[in-house]
Each structure stands twice: as structure tokens, then as C-alpha cells.
Design brief:
With 199 residues, the chain is mainly alpha-helical. The chain contains nine helices and three strands, in the order H-H-H-H-H-H-H-E-H-E-E-H.
Length: 199
């Protein structure tokens, strides 16, 4: 590393000597640049270990912690706005004049939630509500908790079909003939088999 540093300094001196009367060269090292670019990170920056530099030290794309509360609040806001209100014509009769109750509910949410609802956007929108719910479930990790999804296999031989249909580890088995050569089989694993796999 010292050789590389010395070579860099030598090159800079050669360039400065060559261009000295006309040009002034100002150099800045990467660590100084990072300190100017991200001053809040400066106390945490330590010089990189030379051995780590060769193996990608501090260049990984891994982020150990990320605070998703802002993102969660955004999707909660979308879901709440798309849910509408009970006074929405979709839920009530056209002659319903319960607008005051609807506005008090919205004001209660605005006062007690971490996000601000846009009162003009509070209308029932089932598509946006569905997408916001999916995003919220994805953020809270509920999809990762379900591990017994229906398995599908395309069978091309009779032995493959019988191996699945008569297997005691599977339940809810169904078959569908797609072609004279292909049969689609769907099944789920039994609960006790899943417990054995996880242990």
C-alpha cells in the first residue's frame, strides 16, 4: 500500500512541476471527500483495514437495519384513505346525510395517527385498498409465516402420479388432465410432516 501511495504522490509532483506556472492542482483524498459529503457519518468512519480493502471491505450491499416506520405509515394512510367511510354511497343509501359523523371519524384518525389523511381522498377504492393491504402484510412479514402452500407438479408418467397420490405425507390431493401426456397434480403437506421438517 505504501508503494501505491508513493507512486501517486510522485505522479502528482510530476504533473505539478510540468503545469506549475499555469495551473494549480488541488487534491482531495476519498476519505476527506466522504467526510464532506456525509458529515453525520464522520464520527463512525474509521480508516479501512488494508486487508479488508482487497476483499471488498465496506463495499457490501448488506444493510443490517432499516427503519420502515415511515413506509408503514404511508401504506396505512393509503389503506385508510381507500377504505372510505361508512357514509360512502357504496355502503349507505343515497339519502344518507350522516356526513358529520364521517368527518368526525376522519378527524379522530388525523388526531391520533402518525400520518395525515387527505380528507378529499377519503373515498372507497377497493383496488388501492387491496394493494395497500398487500404492501402492509409484506412489510410486517405475515406472508413468510405461512409455509404450507399448495404444491403443483406436472406429471408425465403414471409412476410419478401414483407416487404423489398414494403418498401418506400429502393431503388435499387433486389431479387435472391437461393433455393426453400431462397431468397436473396439486397437494399440501400434512401438519405433522411440517413440524418434523422444521425441528
Amino acid at each position: 500500500m505504501k508503494e501505491l501511495y508513493d507512486q501517486t504522490k510522485e505522479r502528482l509532483k510530476t504533473i505539478e512541476d510540468y503545469l506549475k506556472p499555469n495551473v494549480k492542482i488541488h487534491t482531495i483524498w476519498e476519505c476527506e471527500f466522504d467526510q464532506q459529503k456525509y458529515p453525520e457519518v464522520d464520527p463512525h468512519l474509521k480508516p479501512i483495514d488494508k486487508r479488508d480493502a482487497f476483499y471488498g471491505g465496506r463495499t457490501e450491499t448488506i444493510q443490517l437495519y432499516n427503519n420502515l416506520s415511515d413506509l408503514k405509515d404511508t401504506f396505512m394512510k393509503y389503506k385508510q384513505e381507500a377504505s372510505g367511510c361508512k357514509c360512502d354511497p357504496k355502503y349507505c343509501k343515497p339519502d344518507c346525510e350522516n356526513d358529520k359523523e364521517c368527518k368526525t371519524k376522519i378527524q379522530y384518525i388525523i388526531d391520533n395517527a402518525a400520518y395525515n389523511l387527505d380528507i378529499d381522498k377519503v373515498k372507497h377504492n377497493s383496488g388501492l385498498r387491496f394493494i395497500a393491504k398487500i404492501c402492509l402484510n409484506n412489510l410486517w412479514g405475515h406472508f413468510g409465516m405461512r409455509d404450507n402452500f399448495t404444491q403443483k407438479e406436472y406429471c408425465f408418467t403414471l409412476e410419478h402420479i401414483t407416487k404423489i397420490v398414494f403418498n401418506e405425507k400429502y393431503k388435499d390431493i387433486s389431479t387435472m388432465i391437461l393433455d393426453e401426456n400431462i397431468v397436473l397434480t396439486e397437494y399440501k403437506k400434512k401438519k405433522n410432516i411440517l413440524n418434523l421438517i422444521q425441528v
